[in-house]
Amino acid sequence: MGYVSAVPVPQPRARATSAPDSAGSRRSLAAGLLLGAAGATVVLLASGQTWAEGEAAVGGGTLPLSADGQDVTGLPAALAVVGLAALVAVFAVRGGARLVVAALLALSGLGACLSAYAGASDRASLDEQAAQTTGNTAATVAALSHTAWPYVTAAGGLLILLAGLLALRYGSRWPAMSGRYERDGTPRPRKAPRTAPDPDRPEELWKALDRGEDPTREA
Length: 219
Description:
By secondary structure, the chain is mainly alpha-helical. It has helices spanning 13-46, 69-72, 75-89, 95-118, 124-134, 149-170, 202-210; strands spanning 50-58, 61-68, 142-146.
C-alpha cells in the first residue's frame, strides 16, 4: 500500500506579489518627486509673470500699468517653497511624521492652487498703482485685462497637491534618506600606528617631515 508524501509544495505566489509591490513603490516615488518638483518650478516661474494689465488716466492721456503675480499675491510662491521643503523632508522622516509632512505637502499645493485662482480676477493691485501714479486715492484702473498666468500658477499648485496625495497614499513604502547615513553601532577599525622612520634612511625622514611628524619622536 503506497503512502502519499506530506512534504509541502512551495508556493511561488508570495514571491511573485512582492515584485509588483516594489515596482509600484518605485513608480509612485518617481511620480511624486517629478510632480512636486515640476509643480513648484511652475508656480515660482509663473508667479513672476504678468497677471493683469490696464491703464491709468494721467493728465490728458493714459499710462499703461501691469501687475505680476507677486504684486497680486505672494502666497502661491511662498507655498511652493514650503512644498519643496516638505518634499525633501518626506524622505528624512518616518512613520507618523512622514504622514504629517505629506499632508503639509498636499496642503501647500492646495493653497497655492486656490490663491492663484483667486488672483486671476484681481484688480486691487492695479487700482493701487493707478492711485499712486495719478496722486488721486479715488483713481481706478481702466481697460483692465488678465492673462493666463494665474491659471498656469494654479496648475502648478495642483501638481504639488498630487505629489502630496501620492506621499499620503504610498509614502509609507518609500525609503528614508536618513536610514542610509545612520551608524549601525559597530566600532570602526583603528588605523595601524605609523612606525618611526629609520634614521639611517634619509628619504623616510623627509617623508615624515612632509606629513608633519617629528622624526625624532619614538613610536
